[in-house]
Design a protein that fits this description.
The chain is an alpha/beta fold. Helix content is 45%, strand content 19%. Strands 2-1-3-4-5-6-8-7 form an eight-stranded mixed beta sheet, with helices on both faces. It comes from Leptotrichia trevisanii.
């Protein structure tokens, strides 16, 4: 992480580096790049996906022969470049430590709804003061720098966008892992992040769905098409199956509905809701 005393030195070092303005590789593209760079090693799909989870989708990581230390150092350089050039410098941010605390909060809450006020209250509990307005400005700056992407909630019954409790996903998970290390316990949020980016690549407008007290992970809409998606790590029990399928059962339209998980199960269908393996979904189209 960047310390205040390093700021002037680091900003000169990274000022001329490029900004990430395109999506990182999809899983299908990641596999193609990996095969080109690692001709002596053929992985199965689960192994490719594990690498995709841990390292993200920036194309240049394939130049490092799966060496974790080198990959995370490269990703740290990218992180510092974007943070310094497109966030700190362009927005004249003076308290770098507070900005980084905001970023760490986002890293820790991928897949959770929260607001600028919640971040402000969190920092206050840590003995640091940052107004809700300033947090909002930080979030907007991080969006403009293509570090995070905001997803708003959509009230399915009321057919309206809700202005509170958004989610924020990362444009590349590797940036998080380069700063915190890969944390297996965060798998649920990581899987959501991957599916969210895939929907954007497929040109969907994406929202979180709200139906009374229930939440649908994603509603994807493009032209006259719509789909609903729940994302979970494993359907490990009947209770889990019921929890994941229940919100989709309550939606009274005929658009496609999916529950995506990592289980090695055959496809099955409950009340018209299709269960698919996440890897298979990513390899479609």
């Amino acid at each position: 992480m960047i310390k205040r005393e390093q700021y002037l030195k680091e900003i000169r070092k990274f000022m001329d580096k490029p900004v990430i303005k395109v999506f990182p590789l999809s899983f299908k593209e990641f596999i193609k790049f990996s095969k080109i760079q690692n001709l002596q090693k053929i992985y199965n799909m689960e192994e490719y996906f594990e690498q995709y989870l841990k390292f993200g989708g920036l194309p240049a990581i394939h130049n490092f022969s799966q060496d974790k230390t080198s990959i995370y150092q490269y990703l740290t350089d990218i992180y510092n470049s974007v943070l310094l050039k497109d966030v700190i410098s362009r927005n004249n941010i003076r308290d770098i430590e507070l900005l980084e605390r905001v970023i760490l909060f986002i890293f820790d809450n991928i897949g959770n709804t929260f607001s600028a006020k919640k971040i402000s209250d969190f920092l206050k509990n840590q003995g640091r003061k940052l107004s809700t307005e300033t947090v909002y400005n930080y979030l907007k700056a991080l969006e403009n720098a293509y570090i995070i992407s905001k997803v708003q909630r959509y009230d399915i019954k009321g057919k309206s966008i809700l202005e509170t409790q958004e989610k924020f996903y990362l444009l590349d998970l590797g940036l998080k892992h380069s700063q915190l290390g890969y944390r297996a316990n965060d798998i649920a949020g990581h899987l959501e992040n991957i599916i969210y980016l895939e929907l954007l690549r497929r040109k969907y407008n994406v929202n979180i769905g709200k139906l009374k007290t229930k939440e649908i992970d994603f509603i994807g809409q493009r032209e006259n098409e719509k789909l609903y998606i729940q994302v979970t790590y494993l359907l490990a029990s009947d209770d889990t199956v019921e929890r994941e399928f229940a919100p989709l059962k309550d939606i009274k339209d005929n658009y496609p509905k999916y529950v995506l998980s990592m289980d090695n199960l055959t496809k099955f269908n409950i009340n018209g809701i299709e269960r698919k393996k996440i890897i298979d979904f990513l390899l479609e189209q």
